[in-house]
Design a protein that fits this description.
The chain is mainly α and 184 residues long. The chain has a domain at 1-61. The protein is built from 11 helices and 2 strands, in the order ααββααααααααα. The protein has a two-stranded antiparallel ribbon. The radius of gyration is 19 Å and the shape is globular. 9% of the residues are buried. The mean pLDDT is 80.
């Protein structure tokens, strides 16, 4: 295992633009690597499927930031307003069984193959609406104006989140993703 910097640096825009060579190198030479998330939290990057599957099944390890030595929300490094940190950091991606299992069961009915297929026309409407917003301008930031909002708005519709609350839902999702280490 190495602690030397990876070029391009993980979580940089350069890395996000073309992560595949770096991931290939990591899978071959350093399949498990200690890294620091943009929030300052230290984490392990696991790049091989079999290793990730084994890691996720290991009950000694936790996805829940509250179980880490010093959770990011305790250090104030999440970018989430202080009074909202605990509740916004408790979500399906950051909790362990049995809470994860319970929450997953609650939302799984909205994501059955039949329900998703029935929803395809609505996804097309959302897609058309987002494209219409930037079509006349001649350019767009596809991540921020299309790729990020499309699944958020679709999930909001599937879960029955009222339209007037969907922008808040999008903002909260963005905070959770930024905390999780996406490019800034």
């Amino acid at each position: 295992m190495h602690d030397q910097p990876l070029t391009p640096e993980l979580f940089s825009w350069e890395f996000a633009a073309d992560p595949y060579p770096a991931y290939a190198w990591l899978r071959e030479h350093e399949p498990v690597r200690r890294t620091r998330l943009p929030s300052g939290v230290e984490a392990w990057l696991v790049t091989r499927y079999a290793d990730a599957k084994q890691t996720l099944a290991d009950n000694r390890l936790s996805k829940n930031p509250a179980h880490h030595d010093e959770p990011a929300h305790a250090k104030g490094k999440t970018g989430i307003p202080g009074e909202r940190q605990a509740e916004l950091m408790t979500h399906l991606l950051n909790i362990d069984p049995p809470d994860h299992t319970r929450l997953r069961r609650l939302v799984s009915k909205a994501f059955t193959p039949r329900r998703v297929a029935e929803f395809a026309p609505r996804v097309q409407e959302l897609t058309d609406g987002l494209i219409d917003r930037f079509a006349d301008s001649g350019s767009a930031d596809l991540i921020h104006e299309f790729a990020f909002p499309l699944p958020i708005y679709a999930i909001c519709d599937l879960l029955g989140v009222p339209r007037e609350d969907q922008d808040d839902f999008r903002d909260w999702a963005g905070m959770m993703i930024r905390h999780g280490g996406g490019p800034r």
